[in-house]
Design a protein that fits this description.
Elements (H helix, E strand, L loop, with lengths): L8 E5 L5 H15 L4 E4 L4 H7 L5 H8 L3 E4 L14 H12 L3 E8 L2 E8 L9 E3 L5 E3 L5 H16 L4 E6 L5 H14 L6 E6 H10 L6 E4 L1 H14 L7 E5 L6 E4 L16 H14 L3 H17 L11 H12 L1
Parallel strand pairs: 1-2, 1-3, 3-12, 5-10, 8-9, 8-10
Antiparallel strand pairs: 4-5, 4-11, 6-7, 11-12
Helix pairs in contact: 1-11, 5-6, 7-8, 9-10, 10-11
Length: 332
Amino acid sequence: MTASRERPRIVCLPGDCIGPEVMAVAERVLRELAPDLDLEEHLFGAAAIRATGTSLPDETLAACRTADAVLKAPIGDPEFDAADVRPEQGMLQLRAELDVYANLRPASQGEVDLLIVRELVGGLYFGARGVRDDGTVFDTCEYHPAQVERIARRAFELARARNRRLTSVDKANVLETSRLWRRVVHEVAADYPDVEVADLLVDNAAMQLASAPEQFDVIVTENMFGDILSDLAAAMTGGLGLAPSASLGDAGPGIFEPVHGSAPDIAGRGIANPTGMLLSTALMLEHGLGREAEAGILRGAVDVGRRTSPTPDVGGQATTSEFSDAVVAALA
């Protein structure tokens, strides 16, 4: 989606623990790089539960619906790990409410440059679940052909803009949902004769990602498989702590957030690494606002920060503030 209003409006969700620390860096960078953006913060996650009793207050949801993009920091707090109302419930609700069905997880390092496109609002995580009288617990994986078609089409478009190679990952030798997935993907492929498409079973895909990730360009897969494979790809290219993500729909704002958690063990110590947050901000500039040039500038500045001011999690000694200073200096 490309913002059309004169001053695009970005809803910032600072989240929990280190969330406000890395969000502050993202907001600082945006004020330097794109001063025409209107940034506004809203409660979300554990902070929202403490203030309102729910992780996604109505006011926050209403603001997100009318924004040009949603920039979200990590959520989660040990205080609510076993509670009836948990921060993560708000995340699932926000994704469903905004219908951001396409989760983009880029992974690049050296010869590896791949993009995983994960279906985000269907499958096992959103199917019927419960407990039967005999104590059996169940979760249901369901997909409608239309859900598969739209994520496949999005993946083909992204592949067309890259190296024109798409790998569709499923478990068609076992699962009915995967057989539907494979059939629909190949139906959509007929509209993209310029994109090479291949099928791969998910267990083989995991092995191939671990042993030869450089062979992949774009991977498209369902929700749970994508959740697992994207974390594996991140581990192969620097770790979850550095990985960004974008969640996009066909209309309305996307959600842009780092993959890592809220890291309560280092919260307040000023040593959080904002790389994932800043690279997610770059995805927001590119895919949420149509500002590819500014996204490229930001990615270059983050590379400078990583080289000159590494934080303790990657073997350096820089503070979050010092990393932020290095990135802002590189922007200039």
